[in-house]
From TrEMBL:
<feature type="domain" description="HECT">
    <location>
        <begin position="18"/>
        <end position="102"/>
    </location>
</feature>
<keyword id="KW-0808">Transferase</keyword>
<dbReference type="InterPro" id="IPR045322">
    <property type="entry name" value="HECTD1/TRIP12-like"/>
</dbReference>
<dbReference type="GO" id="GO:0043161">
    <property type="term" value="P:proteasome-mediated ubiquitin-dependent protein catabolic process"/>
</dbReference>
<comment type="pathway">
    <text>Protein modification; protein ubiquitination.</text>
</comment>
<dbReference type="GO" id="GO:0016607">
    <property type="term" value="C:nuclear speck"/>
</dbReference>
<dbReference type="GO" id="GO:0061630">
    <property type="term" value="F:ubiquitin protein ligase activity"/>
</dbReference>
<comment type="similarity">
    <text>Belongs to the UPL family. K-HECT subfamily.</text>
</comment>
<comment type="function">
    <text>E3 ubiquitin-protein ligase which accepts ubiquitin from an E2 ubiquitin-conjugating enzyme in the form of a thioester and then directly transfers the ubiquitin to targeted substrates.</text>
</comment>
<dbReference type="GO" id="GO:0000209">
    <property type="term" value="P:protein polyubiquitination"/>
</dbReference>
<dbReference type="InterPro" id="IPR000569">
    <property type="entry name" value="HECT_dom"/>
</dbReference>
<dbReference type="Pfam" id="PF00632">
    <property type="entry name" value="HECT"/>
</dbReference>
<dbReference type="InterPro" id="IPR035983">
    <property type="entry name" value="Hect_E3_ubiquitin_ligase"/>
</dbReference>
<keyword id="KW-0833">Ubl conjugation pathway</keyword>
<dbReference type="GO" id="GO:0006974">
    <property type="term" value="P:DNA damage response"/>
</dbReference>
<protein>
    <recommendedName>
        <fullName>E3 ubiquitin-protein ligase</fullName>
        <ecNumber>2.3.2.26</ecNumber>
    </recommendedName>
</protein>
């Protein structure tokens, strides 16, 4: 039986190189537009096998020790539109942290640009004052 043989390989103490163990779970890896047809066919076969394996486990009411990422579940359920930057933490924590740092740098930059705009506005108003300290109108 396929499920028994597959389970024996999964539950061995020594991790095999052909199996993946990820703390963040398994998630879909996008294929490039120029991916070869043979590669796509091979990946489809793996997904088909995985689907059959999971269906068989459900029918036999067996628990499968196979974790998928939250992003994968959203993808399977057709909820891609709900994905955002916060979901990246479930795939790659380091990449997520780098994006958050970059986001904070952009926020600081925007704040500085806004402050600089106000400073320039104040500076321009000061230049418009005449000798007798009367405010001159700056017409656009």
């Amino acid at each position: 039986m396929i499920t028994i043989a597959f389970s024996k390989k999964i539950y061995k103490d020594v991790p095999l190189p052909e199996y993946v163990d990820s703390r963040s779970g398994l998630y879909p890896a996008p294929l490039g537009r120029n991916a070869k047809a043979s590669v796509i066919t091979k990946i489809r076969q793996k997904y088909k096998f995985l689907g059959k394996f999971m269906a068989k486990a459900l029918m036999d009411t067996r628990m499968i020790d196979m974790s998928f990422s939250i992003v994968f579940y959203k993808w399977i359920l057709g909820q891609e539109e709900t994905l955002n930057l916060e979901d990246l933490v479930h795939i790659d924590r380091n990449l997520y942290e780098q994006f958050k740092k970059l986001q904070s740098i952009v926020h600081i930059r925007d704040k500085l640009v806004s402050q600089n705009h106000l400073i320039n506005k104040i500076h321009n108003k000061k230049r418009l004052k005449s000798k007798d300290d009367c405010q001159l109108e700056n017409s656009p």
